[in-house]
């Protein structure tokens, strides 16, 4: 089945066809780094991490760019409150972002550009827009003429009245039209600023992504993505200014993920109901958080609850147990290739996984296929005779789809037993043989303290990490 994705701009499920065969140019809007990210932010980065991985599985060479907004009103205000510089504040929370994302298994982008390192590109774009009549300067500020392009609003599909209401426009007598938005902001006393043809100032939010995406990915992107909250005004304004700047379509496919709800309300800073990843990581396994963020179709809202995360942690144990059981049976399995029945079953599961992901990247259904594969593996393990090829085939399948694509299965140690653990297990077996149960129990407790769980099976003792 060929990949189809829902394009926000056309509001249709479309066949995915990048500009170049086997190459994808992908830009995902990154965080504004003035605080720790919350679980709603994390949904963007975890989901599009999976999109990137799946595209690579499909054979595409993906160039993945995710920016950092390291200068804006919130950064300036927070830095002033804390008595530090905007640069120091941004660097602190960029580092915190990577700590959170590394824990959640999110791979680094190919390029992580910072807004403050691309001021020249932004100023060049702004000047081009002025020269073309799409922008104008007023007392050191530069604004984009939103209605200069007659298709403004085509991404969010809003009427003119809705656009005006949604823009949350402050009264500004300098603007020709209330919908016009800032490309360059005149510096206030004491603010971070850069020299420009229009006086000292700093860039507006929207021009940052237009300049950075163009520099690294060209005039037209294959995929532009982010949270649904960015569709308007950020992505709408990006599209308008970029297409006016280059005269070309800005992005072929616009992908937006849904919100996370806290009870009946959307999670948002304005409501004060956000839950930060750095705090959740202290309470739950990061893999459980990743699972939660992939557990619903990306365009649907998902409701956060602590009970849901706890249930997910239990579900992850099924994955880990399956991997441990498959590895354990290797010790007594026969030499030989995978059985024909096993190959056919894994081909079926592969088809179901691909069908789920090809249908608008449905990670929820893909996770269901993982559980189906685990159930199938456990059923196979009940056979009295198994080949190493069959066991390896299941392990390879779980690694490819559960670990490499979804990032939910921890394949654990690839090589045999740790020598120290193996020695203790052997000593425990000897103690049990001479009925020294006190010593045997002491060894079990010693291993448990190291996070090693022992399980006595008909094939012998096996161990796994907690």
What features would you describe in this structure?
By secondary structure, the protein is α/β, with parallel strands linked by helices. The protein has three domains: about 5-130 and about 205-300, HUPs (Rossmann fold, 3-Layer(aba) Sandwich), CATH 3.40.50; about 305-405, Four Helix Bundle (Hemerythrin (Met), subunit A), CATH 1.20.120.640; about 420-465, no CATH class. It has 15 helices and 15 strands. The chain has a four-stranded parallel sheet with strand order 4-3-9-10, with helices on both faces. A four-stranded antiparallel sheet has the order 5-6-7-8. The chain has a three-stranded mixed sheet with strand order 12-11-13. Strand 9 (about 220-225), helix 7 and strand 10 (about 250-255) form a beta-alpha-beta unit. Helix 9 (about 285-295) crosses helix 10. The two termini are about 40 Å apart. The relative contact order is 0.11.
State the assembly state of the protein chains: single chain
Question: Could you give the distance between the termini?
Answer: 38 Å
Shape: elongated
Beta-strand portion reads 15-25%
Strand line-up of the largest beta sheet: 4-3-9-10
What is the CATH architecture annotation of the largest domain? 3-Layer(aba) Sandwich
Strand tally is 15
Domain module count? 3
CATH superfamily of the largest domain: HUPs
Q: If you consult CATH, what is the topology of the largest domain? A: Rossmann fold
Helix amount: 40-55%
* Radius of gyration from CA coordinates: 27 Å
Largest sheet: 4 strands, parallel
The number of helical runs is 15
Average pLDDT works out at 92
User: What would you call the structural class?
Assistant: alpha/beta
Order of helices and strands: EEEHEHHHEEHEEHEHEEEHHEHHHHHHEE
Q: Can you identify the CATH class of the largest domain?
A: Alpha Beta
Instruction: Outline the low-pLDDT stretches.
Output: none
Binding site for Zn(2+): 29, 209, 234, 238
Subunit structure: Monomer.
EC number: 6.1.1.16
Motif ('KMSKS' region): 266-270
